[in-house]
Specification:
Layout lengths: L20 H9 L5 E3 L3 E7 L3 H18 L4 E5 L2 E6 L9 H11 L2
Antiparallel strand pairs: 1-2, 2-4, 3-4
This protein binds ligand H2B.
Ligand H2B binds next to loops.
């Protein structure tokens, strides 16, 4: 398990640069199931056996988002859920996005 999952998302007030380059790659290596898209957001696709299982997972992700005050975009349908996360305030990635993704991996 990545130790990212033990940490807490922190609200971003802006004024920090989005993660890029080597620092971004180092974090990405800790979450091999997530794609880093355009150095801008993280994305992972999940598959389930039916609509209900996908919906239950969406609700668990939603509870985590409220608990962490860090909210992903969620796209879902029968048997599939796609999670996208980035930090809106800076329109890019921060450590909180990786922390959130690691916590999703542990659900
Ligand atoms: C004030 C509050 O912390 C912010 O609006 C939060 C809420 N949830 C958020 N979720 C995500 N994914 N990115 C953010 O920048 C963000 N900002």
């Amino acid at each position: 398990m990545s130790d990212l999952a033990q940490r807490e998302c922190v609200p971003c007030k802006g004024g920090v640069p989005p993660l890029k380059g080597e620092k971004l790659e180092e974090l990405a290596r800790q979450l091999p199931d997530w794609e880093v898209v355009d150095e801008h957001h993280l994305r992972r696709k999940f598959r389930f056996g039916n609509f209900r299982e996908a919906l239950d997972f969406v609700n668990r992700v939603g509870e985590l988002a409220e608990e962490q005050n860090h909210h992903p975009d969620i796209c879902f349908g029968w048997g599939r859920v796609e999670i996208t996360v980035f930090t809106h305030k800076i329109d890019g990635l921060t450590e909180s996005d990786f922390i959130f993704a690691a916590k999703v991996d542990n659900l």
